[in-house]
């Protein structure tokens, strides 16, 4: 059976492992301004702490927030059981060749008829196949990365499955047994490699964690040819957004103030203290409302760049004031319209 909650790891020495409602990690890039780091250290935020904490573990070890969570799949052998559903997806999966046409989205689902977790992240070639155990790719050391993991009850996964159909993720390892196919026809189709029929080109869904925290999932298919941040999320959330995403020169979209609510590119991040890094070395995808009173934070799949207008992808948005404060204070410099 899937654990009763996401398994996290402490950022405080000698604190025992505990189950948490949700956690976010921010894996720091190797190249910071004036400094070269390890590329595997990360900050950590969950419902038990009010601000970013540096993890005492490295992201490439078998201990830590993501490793302990995924070990429910790897060490628990859930991938060999018909009593749970799991799916590993990544448009750039480990080992396998890259194939065009899938959504620009990365993550893990693991749940049974009681509950489970949805881990959404930005790390290419991750996670490893279950039979190989937890491995962090060397390619994931250079750039910054983010991951959001939330524990949901089973009925919420019926909604998440519908969102997956729009994302059209590349499921490179998955299992949806016959006992679940009636409840989860979209996941069963995706697991078999087929593309579900969509009712529209985008979809929004409210989700509630196992402890009642509200999230809003925005997902778009490749048929919604628009920047998800500007054309949809900012307008639907009624908030001007500051967006952090991988900004490759010549591919990035400029800050946009053509619609009622604006979208502005973050160019530099400052960690608690004096450490800073540029967006060029940050492969994470997130945004916060510019105005403090809106308190919107989204963690997502897509970069603000032209090729990804034609890609499926999504955002998971929170209205938690502590999450907002943690991300908003990271914004050191952004490009106004």
Architecture overview:
It is built from 6 helices and 21 strands. It is of the alpha+beta class and 337 residues long. It has one domain (6-334). The strands form 4 sheets. Strands 13, 14, 15, 16, 17, 18, 19, 20 and 21 form a 9-stranded mixed beta sheet that branches. An 8-stranded antiparallel beta sheet has the order 7-6-3-11-10-9-8-12, with helices on both faces. It is globular, with a radius of gyration of 18 Å.
Helices, by number, come to: 6
Note the quaternary state here: single chain
Kindly, what is the distance between the CA atoms of the first and last residues, rounded to a whole number of angstroms?
Answer: 51 Å
Question: What is the overall shape?
Answer: globular
What does the main sheet amount to? Answer: 9 strands, mixed
Structural class: alpha+beta
Q: Ranges with pLDDT <50 over ≥5 residues?
A: 7-18
Query: Based on DSSP secondary structure assignment, what is the total number of beta strands?
Result: 21
Task: Return the domain count.
Answer: 1
Helix fraction, binned, reads 10-25%
Gyration radius from CA atoms, angstroms: 18 Å
Secondary-structure element sequence? EEEEEEEHEEEEHEHHEEHEEEEEEHE
What is the average per-residue confidence, as pLDDT, rounded to a whole number? 92
How much of the residues is beta strand, in percent?
Answer: 25-35%
EC number: 3.1.22.1
Pfam families: DNase_II
InterPro entries: DNase_II
Organism: Lates japonicus (Japanese lates)
